[in-house]
Design goal:
Length: 331
């Protein structure tokens, strides 16, 4: 019997894209799934679109709309987990199109591996955006060609994965609880909620699957002008992610963070030698330290390694990463 899969899509003021994302999930060929749209929008356009799709006759799955008053990607992930009941929970974004076999590939990957708690699939650049990418538009993606299994027993952890194509086994939540709401888009520490969730999965004894057969197409683009803000958010989030586990006395996290810091120092040196002129310190390295400083204001729950509010560290809402909408080309 196929395990039920609950799909969670988190969205905020992206009514121009949410419909195509929902439709692609609804078209999946998997026999037992439902879809929960976690909306943090300021208007009601997204609600109207999702509810209209949910009312279509002959749908393969139940589509449920939820509105959240407070923004934050990790907060939306956790709310989606709470309202769903699938044995597996699959996450994708509002600017993603999934293929018909997406859920079948996820279930197949988890099948027969009870130690697997988390799965990451490939996030691909659609063919219709390749010309834009050649002209300088940035489409965040992550691709590889070999299946890997990361486990504490094998000691082979690496920082990998994008939340746009991610799935978890619900029993994992007994160990890691959920996503850190200080991290991630809209949270005070900006990003890296997926890296942090994966690291806790590994540390708390469940395996991570890196499965190239699980693929999605990403239509979220960033211009060259938007990219520095994106890198700032990435740097702040990464600094907060690594420093949290370092504060917990985690030597692996210290080793990983030291390697990141070294690369952020050596890269400007390499550029200076190549260009035969002095190149200043990279912004990413500076933002790493900004993340460390911001995270130091928060306390840490030692059991689940989650940030907790203090008098100076609050779960405030920050601006979402700047993203430009791109619709798929319809043949």
């Amino acid at each position: 019997m196929s395990p039920k899969i609950s799909v969670v899509i988190c969205t905020r003021d992206r009514h121009d894209l949410i419909g195509q994302a929902v439709e692609s999930v609804m078209a999946c060929d998997y026999p037992a799934f439902d879809l929960h749209v976690m909306d943090q929008s300021t208007g009601d356009e997204t609600k109207q679109i999702v509810e209209a799709l949910a009312a279509r006759p002959g749908s393969r799955c139940r589509v449920v709309y939820h509105h959240l008053d407070k923004a934050g990607l990790s907060r939306a992930y956790n709310a989606g987990i709470a309202v769903s009941d699938g044995e597996l929970i699959a996450f994708t974004d509002d600017d993603v199109i999934v293929p018909a076999d997406w859920l079948s590939q996820i279930a197949r990957s988890f099948d027969g591996d009870p130690e697997a708690g988390l799965l990451y699939g490939q996030v691909c650049v659609p063919a219709s955006l390749e010309d834009q990418v050649r002209r300088g538009v940035i489409v965040p993606s992550l691709t590889w060609d070999r299946r890997e299994r990361l486990s504490r027993r094998d000691g082979n952890y690496k920082v990998w994965g994008m939340g746009a194509d991610m799935a978890i086994r619900r029993t994992l939540l007994d160990r890691v609880w959920g996503f850190d709401e200080a991290l991630g888009g809209g949270g005070p520490l900006r990003s890296s909620q997926d890296y942090d969730f994966a690291y806790r999965t590994y540390r708390f004894g469940m395996a991570i699957l890196l499965e190239p057969a699980v693929k999605v197409d990403h239509y979220g683009t960033r211009t060259q002008e938007q990219w520095p803000l994106t890198m700032k958010n990435y740097g702040i989030g990464d600094g907060a992610f690594y420093s949290k586990h370092v504060r917990c006395g985690d030597l692996l996290a210290l080793r990983l963070f030291s390697a990141i810091l070294l690369r952020s120092f050596l890269q400007p040196v390499a550029w200076s030698l190549k260009q035969r002129r002095l190149v200043g310190r990279g912004d990413y390295g500076r933002h790493l330290w900004e993340g460390v400083r911001a995270a130091s204001k928060f306390a840490i729950d030692p059991r689940f390694r989650l940030y907790r509010e203090t008098a100076s560290g609050k779960m405030t809402v920050t601006d979402a990463n700047a993203v430009t909408a791109a619709a798929p080309r319809r043949e």
